[in-house]
Amino acid sequence: MQTLTGLLQIAERKEKGPATTFDRVHLLLAFLTIGDSGMIGRGALAAQSELGEGAIRTMIKKLREEGYADAIASGCFLTPAGRRVYGSVRKKISLIVPIQDSRLGVGSAQAAVVVRGAAKAVRYGIEQRDSAIRAGAAGTTTYVIRSGKFTIPGGSADCERDFPDRVWLELRSKLKARNGDAVIVCGALQETLARAGALAAALTLL
Predict the structure, then answer these.
(1) What is the CATH classification number for the domain harbouring 123?
(2) Which end of the chain is more exposed for a tag (fewer CB within 10 A), N or C?
(3) Same domain as 191, residue 119
(4) Number of neighbouring beta carbons within 10 Å of residue 47
């Protein structure tokens, strides 16, 4: 049965010919974008994943060969096997949502994601920050939901009290985070990089 691990290995598998220009974060971001959309054209997928259409063609070819996706003239879509993997990933990783004009992090564009039940896996957020930076982001802050509050491990036990900002209401309404969840806010120069950084950070908690 296809799994998230098997999906990510597609990006790491070396084959003859030119090296691929995407990594496992780009692959997962494209895969989730296809699943979120139902069906999406190659051009739109390239724009949303910040990859060239050549890289997208290679990625879709690999996804088709492994049975995760298929394509017709009007666009690409997930197969039943791909939908199963998509569903299992979405049980752990929420939709990545844009955050507007927040003072919580660095970067002119910010995005946030919830990793369900991942609070115990968060130490001080350094691993998430470093992974996001490698994906092209400027940085991240990782929060843990405890007793209904946004907390920072080793720091604030109530971020809404200590750092007043309207963004907390936005995070609550968009993400629906629950006790025991981890919330990652990622900043970058562009929204696509913020989304990739947020996803890269989320992967460290799975």
Answers:
(1) 3.30.1360.30
(2) N
(3) yes
(4) 14
Give the contacts of 143 (CB within 8 A, at least 6 positions apart).
150, 151, 152, 159, 182, 183, 184, 185
Handedness of CA 177, 89, 196, 142 (dihedral sign): positive
Contacts of 11 (CB under 8 A, 6+ apart): 20, 22, 23, 24, 26, 27
Go through the chain and tell me how many residues it has.
206
pTM score, two decimals?
Answer: 0.92
114-149 confidence digits (pLDDT tens): 999 999 999 999 999 999 999 999 999 999 999 999
Q: Are residues 41 and 142 in the same domain?
A: no
3-state secondary structure 44-60: HHHHHHCCCHHHHHHHH
